[in-house]
Amino acid sequence: MLVLLAGIFVVHIATVIMLFVSTISNVWMVGSSGVGTISTGLWLLCNKTCTQLSVSSQDEASLKTVQAFMILSIIFSVVALVLFIIQLFTLEKGKRFYMTGAVMLVCWMCILIAVSIYTARFTGTLVYSTNPHHGYCFILAWICFCFSFIIGILYLVLRKK
Question: What is the pTM of this model?
Answer without folding.
Answer: 0.88
